[in-house]
Amino acid sequence: QVQLVESGGGLVQAGGSLTLSCAASGRTFISHTSAWFRQAPGKEREFVGAVHRRWTGGESTYYADAVEGRFKILNDNVKNTLTLQMNSLQLEDTAVYYCSTGVGRVTDYSAAESYPYWGQGTQVTVSS
């Protein structure tokens, strides 16, 4: 059974940085597209970024326009964790952040429906 557990959320001032981690058990992230989503109060869950790492070592990453250049997804194959590095945080980044992983290579990487496995979420609050 695939289980994902996020950690690292918290309170940070605008302009600051925060790193989220997603630990997987039951399966590796390699060869399965994985993604981060977020959901702010009263809003729908939105795509943040995705990564697909191949067994050969090559990797493809995709980011939402809102976070491009500020957020970065890292894949630690030894620890079997997915990390979301968030820099230059803005008030609008406040949300519950979710880690997810799919089965094989996902075609529509920005669609939540593409990912059958989800973590419980971790709260990120950006203050002014």
**Number of helices, where a helix is a run of at least 4 consecutive DSSP H or I residues:** 0
- Count of individual beta strands: 11
Q: How does the overall form come out from the CA principal axes?
A: globular
What oligomeric state do these chains adopt?
single chain
CA-atom Rg in angstroms: 14 Å
Task: Report on the biggest sheet.
Answer: 7 strands, mixed
- Helicity, in percent? under 10%
Gap from first CA to last CA: 41 Å
- The H-and-E topology, N to C, reads as EEEEEEEEEEE
The unreliable regions are: none
Strand content: over 45%
Q: Structural class per helix/strand content?
A: mainly beta
| Mean pLDDT across residues | 95
Would you write up a description of this structure?
The chain has 128 residues and is mainly beta. The radius of gyration is 14 Å and the shape is globular. 32% of the residues are buried. It contains no helices and 11 strands.
Give a brief rundown of this model.
This protein is mainly β and 128 residues long.
